[in-house]
Automatic annotation (TrEMBL):
Alphabetized UniProt keyword annotations: Hydrolase, Membrane, Transmembrane, Transmembrane helix
Organism, scientific name: Streptosporangium oxazolinicum
Protein name: PP2C family protein-serine/threonine phosphatase
Record's keyword annotation contains Mitochondrion: no
InterPro entries xref list: Bact_Sigma-Reg, PPM-type-like_dom_sf, PPM-type_phosphatase-like_dom
Coiled-coil portions: none
Pfam families in alphabetical order: SpoIIE
Domain of life, per lineage: Bacteria
Residue spans crossing the bilayer: 34-57, 69-88, 100-120
This protein's record includes keyword Nucleotidyltransferase: no
Lineage, broadest ranks: Bacteria, Bacillati, Actinomycetota, Actinomycetes, Streptosporangiales
Residue intervals of the PPM-type phosphatase domain: 152-366
Length: 376
């Protein structure tokens, strides 16, 4: 029921956004006619001395902002007709200032039609880019399963720093394998298409290696081999890999990534720093030894939050970093996805503007304790 409520809430907010956008567009389309009507009424009441006829050119000028070609042309024709009618009414039709006003309206109308054509072409191109970005996102960041085994819920959140692209250099994946549920959360150095390409390499290699390799160390080695063929210069990828194999712990290998945040059933909150520092992926030539796994307790009622540095390095207007530890209570909701959505909304509210870096979060919740108490 909580998940259904969260879904309905997101759908309702999306509906409100679309309604607000529609109302704005309708207002902009009516604005040219309102402006011309006001100018005509004032000129009609004040007589030929008002000199307001040139303001009729505002109609086609405003029409180019939101109207199509046909509507912009109609607005221009209406402005010309109003100018002629008011010129006849005020007996100034063939005076020089009236002729200049007619030429100005005609010129603005032609320019507005051309501007409207350019705007529509740009909007179509932007729509194509968005559709391609959405398709790329579905391939690169596939929907993860909402369960990672009996009683274990999964929730994800991704916010791209490039709003129109919707994807970036952060990555995540959850794969169910014969060796258990395996997870990766990572961050590619850099931004743009190059970072997206590197993220695709990492995710493709992980999805294959997670099924084939018996240990997490083997998965890391496969990722290193894949990146060695693709990366150049000093590029690298920070990542944390995890494995849930049915016990009371999560096996983790941290490759230079921010430590996961653990929220235990006794309201304890701490960061699971690795005992041995490991270099990021793509820097295998500098490694003296293989990265060693460590274990995070994962008892019934516990939660583990994986995230990228775009979360903890997000700053507000005063330069203060996002206080993730202080906001951990937002993850106490009944629904994991709803809780993570609340944390994401708080992060965006803290920044108050588009994020400067991509921010990905993945939440694991051991539900067994809550389920047993509900059954009791």
């Amino acid at each position: 029921m909580a998940s259904l409520g969260s879904t309905r809430t997101r759908a309702f907010l999306g509906l409100l956004t679309s309604i607000g956008t529609t109302k704005t567009q309708d207002t902009l389309k009516l604005l040219p006619f309102v402006v011309m009507a006001v100018v005509a009424l004032i000129d009609f009441g004040s007589g030929p001395t008002s000199g307001l006829l040139p303001l009729l050119a505002l109609g086609p000028a405003f029409a180019s902002v939101a109207c199509g070609l046909a509507r912009t042309t109609v607005v221009g024709v209406v402005a010309l007709v109003l100018c002629l009618a008011l010129g006849v009414y005020n007996d100034i039709l063939w005076m020089p200032r009236t002729d200049i006003t007619l030429l100005a309206i005609l010129g603005v109308t032609v320019a507005s039609v051309l501007a409207s054509a350019g705007r529509l072409r740009h909007e179509h191109q932007l729509a194509d880019v968005r559709s391609v970005a959405e398709a790329a996102q579905r391939v690169l960041l596939r929907p993860v399963p909402r369960r990672a085994g009996p009683g274990i819920g999964v929730a994800v959140s991704y916010t791209s720093a490039t709003a129109e692209a919707r994807i970036g250099g952060d990555l995540y994946e959850v794969v169910t394998t014969p060796h258990g549920v395996r997870i990766i959360v990572g961050d590619v150095q850099g931004k743009g298409l190059e970072a997206v390409e590197t993220a695709a390499v990492v995710l493709g290699a992980f999805r294959e290696a997670a099924h084939d390799e018996r240990t997490l160390q083997g998965v890391v080695a496969r990722l290193e081999n894949a990146l060695a063929r693709e990366l150049s210069g000093e590029q690298f990828v920070t990542a944390v890999l995890a494995e849930i194999s049915g016990g009371s712990t999560i096996t983790v290998i941290n490759c230079g990534h921010p430590a996961p945040m653990v929220l235990d059933a006794d309201d304890g909150i701490w960061f699971a720093d690795p005992p041995d520092e490991a270099l990021p992926l793509g820097m295998s030539a500098l490694k003296a030894s293989e990265p060693r796994p460590h274990h995070i307790p994962f008892e019934p009622g516990d939660q583990v939050l994986f995230y990228t540095d775009g979360v903890i390095e997000a700053r507000d207007d005063t330069g203060e970093f996002y206080p993730l530890l202080e906001r951990a209570h937002l993850l106490d909701g009944d629904d994991p996805q709803g809780s993570l959505d609340a944390l994401r909304a708080d992060l965006l509210g803290h920044v108050g503007r588009p994020l400067g870096d991509d921010a990905a979060m993945l939440l694991l919740r051991h539900r067994a304790a809550r389920q047993s108490s509900t059954a009791a």
